[in-house]
Amino acid sequence: MPFELESQIPFGLDDVVVAGQSLQRIENGTRTLAVAVVKNTIAEHVDVLTAAGLDPAQIALGPLAPLALLPLADVDKHGLTALLDIGENSTSVVLLQEGTLIGLRTFTIGLSRPGGFAAFLQELGWTLLALIPEDSSLPEKIFLCGGGAYSPELSEEIQHALAVEIVPLQSLAIPAIPESQRPDQAVYATCLGMGLHEALRGTTPMVNLRQGEFVPQRHSEKFRRESRHLAWLAAGVAAAAGLALMLDIYRLTLRYQTLRQETRRVFVATLPDTQTIVNEKAQLADAVETLQKRQRLLRGASTGSPLDVLRHLSAVVPEQVALDLDTWTFDEDAIRLQGTTSSFESAEAIKTAVMSLGLFRDAQLKDVKTIAGSQKVAFGLQLFFQKDERQETKRDATGREQQAEVEPLNLGTRRREG
User: How far apart (Å, rounded) are the C-alpha atoms in residues 188 and 416?
Assistant: First the structure.
């Protein structure tokens, strides 16, 4: 936009402040409001406001401000309409088509009208002819604001000369303005329009000339200072959180190493014959469980210890039956043994003799076969204890008795010749 304006204005781009706003998409582009103001003019304006103790965030064009009141009053802006802001020494003409800005001009004839109404109407007519598109006629409705809105004679002259409907702004009902202050709407239209445009986030055109070197330094400096303060505060919080996390990690690591060393010391002292240490806790738990099972087996139940059971078996086997016992496995459910004898009949006799003890509910011969190159017979025998004698009784929280099978444990291999 600045480069498009450069050929249209008698100033260099370094001497002006350029502001603008897109107004409407058209067939071959975008209609844009472009404003170029000499920097010295803006500087003088800012100096006046600063001397009054003011530092506004925006400096806008006065003729555009009253447009913010029209949408608030919900007026009909159909077709070609115009807004006249008639002051004491100048008049601003804003031309709208379907409510969209298409032209703006200010001429130096106002209420003082040195040439009378004729000079005012002549300048107004030329302005409208210059702003109106070629295929359009004069505006159908004109809104009046400024001091000229309170002159019935001027309103009649404009209406008679242009044959248009005249609507003074003080006659509009704007909800944001109290009814008691409605008569002053027209004379304060510029101030009201700027304030309500900002407060109600209006959609009418409004450019801000405080750009570039004229941006309010106090606000930006305050923002930068607060941003730096917030950044330092955030950095301090992050550093404190990081330090606390590092201390927690160090303390947990130190405790973990101490527990590992103590666990290793206990493990070595408890199981000195273990050569491979993978997981001290798991290996210690397995060793304790194994020892507990062996303790239960060696302690025995109603049938006696494993040695007692073996002695009973030896006593009931007939003396004429030869028996070589190769494997002896004892757990809380059964006894499993493997051995050799002289014949198939001897294996059956061993089974019958064992059942006569009354300790077992069942006996099963397995893998009975003749040993190649020998007169002996190999066999396996499984002896299952009586259920009621190999179960432990425990009570739950309600006092009911429950039966729980004790897990079996292989005691290893035994060999006895008999």
Answer: 123
The answer to whether the beta carbons of residues 85 and 66 sit under 8 Å apart is yes
> pLDDT grade, residue 22 (50/70/90)?
confident
Mean pLDDT computed over 178-190: 90
The arrangement of strands across the sheet holding 141-146 comes to: 100-107, 91-97, 80-86, 141-146, 165-168
pLDDT of residue 95: 92
At residue 164, φ and ψ (nearest 5 deg) are: -125, 165
Q: Where are the domains of the chain?
A: 2-215, 293-417
Inter-residue contact 34 to 22 (CB < 8 Å): no
Full DSSP string of 149-197: GG-HHHHHHHHHHH--EEEEGGGS--TTS-GGGGGGTTTTHHHHHHHHH
**pLDDT over 90 percentage in the chain:** 24
Grouping H, G, I as helix, E, B as strand and the rest as coil, residue 145 is strand
Q: Beta strand 391-395 with 360-370: parallel, antiparallel or unpaired?
A: unpaired
The three-point CA angle 327-336-317 to 5° equals: 80
Residue partners of 116: CB distance under 8 A and separation at least 6: none
Q: What percent of the chain has pLDDT over 70?
A: 86
Per-range mean pLDDT, top range of 5-14, 155-164, 346-355? 155-164
2-215 — its CATH code? Answer: 3.30.420.40
Is residue 63 within 8 Å of residue 205, measured between CB atoms?
no
Q: Encode pLDDT of 300-323 as tens digits.
A: 555 566 777 778 888 888 888 888
- Per-residue model confidence (pLDDT) at position 353: 86
Is residue 7 classed exposed, middle or buried when 0-12, 13-18 and 19+ CB atoms within 10 A define those classes?
exposed
